[in-house]
Amino acid sequence: MKVRRGPRSGLPVVVAIHSRALGPAAGGIRLRRYPDWRDGLADALRLSEAMTAKNAAAGLDFGGGKTVIALGPDTEVTPSLREAALLDAGELIESFEGTYFGGPDVGTGPDDMVVVRRSTSRVFCLPPEHGGTGSSSIPTALGVFASLRAGARHVFGSAELTGRTVVISGLGSVGALVAQHVAAAGARVLVSDVDPAKRASGYEWVDPEKALRTPADIVVPAAVGGVLSAELVPELSAPLVVGPANNQLTSEAVADELAARGIVWVPDFIASAGGAVYTLLREVEGVPHEEANARVEAIGATVSAVLDSARDKGTTPLREARARVAARLA
Ligand code: PHE
Asked: Would the keyword Oxidoreductase be found if you checked this record's keyword annotation (predicted)?
């Protein structure tokens, strides 16, 4: 791990590499506000570990890493500060000499990667006109939708979403696309976001504090992590929780509490792997679009396998998924 005060931006930049057991580390560049920059450091460490699990469980030959650019609670993000911070991040990434590759994440997108590219070539998801495969949110959402249908088949006996109520907590770049998929499949979609301007999305709205507790068939955590806690579990009413947010559980024990209540939770590092799968296959292995998309859709089969074997063995989906990761890393 390296931590620097960016020479151009003055902002703390962290690159954390958790594992290179399967190959070079890969994971996005997060640009986010933190109460204290050390919270950003802790986030980078947790997120890099989640990337190890994500890439391993998805069968990718990549390790786990993450970059965090930590904005303060009151940092004013002008375009020039943003550019400076992205150049700083690229410079730090370049110092890893190809053992870590970055890409977009919460707070960044393909256009930002064009800026990062000025400091390092080790960056994915540039817009197509710059030679990349563009937004990873599109395949991430596709993988979440495949996971959601697999979860529905497991819990309700059918992947059919017509007539089901689905709550999407977080209408960011991935959450908004998941909402589109789910609405197109005929479900009633309720959304929430900490940004009240997202009410204009036109979907039914729920308060962000109440979103996960809303009576529904499926709840989709699609914002930042740390939302499923021991305190929240008794208040959940949906029998299926599946979404793209990284590190949804406040601790691993929450998975046991969810299972004890009969709630099926699809491990986040499995459901959210679509962006990594598509991007790494396309940009590193040169796999064609259709084939890469098929690999993203296959996340649904992984979800089915994990949920079925967890049920058969009397364990939780998290333990089952962790065992699969450990087997790959061994
Ligand atoms: N940041 C996204 C994730 O956490 C997508 C991504 C994966 C981007 C791997 C780059 C490399 O999965």
From this structure: yes
CA 260 to centroid of ligand 1, rounded, Å = 31
Residue 276 CB–ligand 1 contact under 6 Å: yes
Three-class secondary structure of residue 203 per DSSP: coil
The verdict on whether residue 172 carries a ligand-binding annotation is: yes
151 is in an annotated binding site: no
Is 312 inside a domain boundary? yes
Q: With contact defined as beta carbons under 8 Å apart, do 164 and 217 qualify?
A: yes
Residues 75 and 153 in one domain: no
pLDDT, tens digit, 9 for 90 and up, residues 46-105: 999 999 999 999 999 999 999 999 999 999 999 999 999 999 999 999 999 999 999 999
pLDDT digits (tens, 9 = 90+) for 210-224: 999 999 999 999 999
Q: Which amino acid appears at position 158 of this protein?
A: S
- What's the 312 CA to ligand 1 centre distance in angstroms? 32
What is the amino acid identity at position 297? E
**One domain for residues 110 and 12:** yes
Q: Annotation-wise, does 277 bind a ligand?
A: no
Residues marked as catalytic: 66
Ligand 1 pocket check for 138: Cβ under 6 Å: no
Ligand 1 near 103 CB (within 6 A): yes
**C-alpha 101 to ligand 1 mean position (Å):** 10
If one counts the domains in the chain, the total is 2
Residues of the chain short of pLDDT 70, as ranges, are none
C-beta of 52 in contact with ligand 1 (< 6 A): no
**Is residue 175 marked as binding?**
yes
27 lines ligand 1 (CB under 6 A): yes
β-pair type (188-192, 165-169): parallel
- Number of other residues whose CB lies within 10 A of the CB of residue 260: 10
Which stretch of DSSP H or E encloses residue 42? helix 37-57
Helices (H) and strands (E) in the chain, counts: 11, 12
Q: What is the DSSP letter of 132?
A: S
- Same-domain check for residues 182 and 309: yes
